[in-house]
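Crash report, auto-generated. Payload:
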Amino acid sequence: MPSRVVVFDYGSGNLSSAQRAMERTGADVTVTSDPHAALEADGLVVPGVGAFSACMSSLRAAGGDRIIGRRVAGGRPVLGICVGMQVLFDRGVERADPRAGDQVTEGCGEWPGTVDRLRAPIVPHMGWNTVRPPADTRLFAGIGPQERFYFVHSYAVREWEFSTHNERIREPGVTWAEHGEPFVAAVENGPLCATQFHPEKSGDAGARLLANWVATL
Amino acid sequence: MSLAVRVIPCLDVDAGRVVKGVNFENLRDAGDPVELAHGYDAAGADELTFLDVTASSGDRETTYDVVRRTADQVFIPLTVGGGVRTADDVDLLLRAGADKVGVNTAAIARPELIEEIAERFGRQVLVLSADVRRVREGDRPTPSGFEVTTHGGRRGTGIDALEWCERAAGLGAGEILLNSMDADGTRAGFDLELIRGARARVDVPLIASGGAGAVEHFVPAVEAGADAVLAATVFHFGEFTVADVKRSLREAGHAVR
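Recovered output after restart:
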């Protein structure tokens, strides 16, 4: 029986690409805002575009933060994409208006760290870039180092702040990319995975990554 | 490794059909935008742009249908421009499956539109398309010597093109499609002075357009400051391919996918 995947529809952007790209992996895909379906699915995809603050408030309004937390507590896979990855961190810092101060928005807090404006000569970071996955990656299995993924974002996690002194805790696998400076391009942490880039827009490499994720469900 | 220079074929679509001749091998229907999109995806295009030239607003539904069918089958970014006047138009195109939307004349008439779109959907969806020409003798001069035009380059606005790019980026345009109306159709190469001028003024990505006639034309555009290069006719007529352009960029030391 194919894996049942829900693409969580909480009002953030175009979901049809994510749906179609997931369907290509052979998964049985539903786009819905129904919390029960989102909890019950074999895998939950949390997309997201636009501003961190707007995304986070829509996600909360739809109960998405609690759904993500409950799924992860139960070991049930979640995949965040683009701003859907960013909101998994502690906070987002935005400057919508340069005359105003920083606007700090609390995220889901699944991982420590801050989403901040990328320091690069050209922003947004828009286009195809290479990534450096960890040695034990499952998401990037079978994907060569020369393969590229499609990014479009102005903010990123520029420092990975997770640390533990308990050697029994497995450190999350972090994939890095570079645009002006290194930033987190993907995280693999047990049931919780996320990518800053858009696998659903990343051609064959993206299709392979999604298939790798679906294979873990 | 670094961000790859994007090579973007552009298709003019009129009431759901590709206009301007397209001469692609092994194509069942050379007028079908969806099939062409497939072809370019397979040929290594990094992104696709549809320019909707449909005159009648009654045929807009056809455009949405083409966008929908393309996004269902092609898994690279798709930009759709032409006739976008309001944030609601953007909403319809995004819902149909466009990843980015090009805005041109309507933003000149009402620059707040840029802010409205960026605020509602994020700046990453908004491509400001600027049709630029050099100010002609007898016309009102602009500080940079370049002006923004409307009506496919036929009508000058008197607005300085480089100031406009800077203002649009400040208002929330996520990237700028710089289309030289002087170079367009000449096949004599991109307007490098225009690209350099815009690069000095804005820090959002720049797509160079207009004038591509030979493989050798693309490297100078990138070295003048373009992050992406767009062409139509030369690709459609198979004079050279996306892969040829990428090969020449790679040989010049630029990253490509």
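Post-recovery validation: The domain at 6-251 of chain B is CATH 3.20.20.70 (TIM Barrel).
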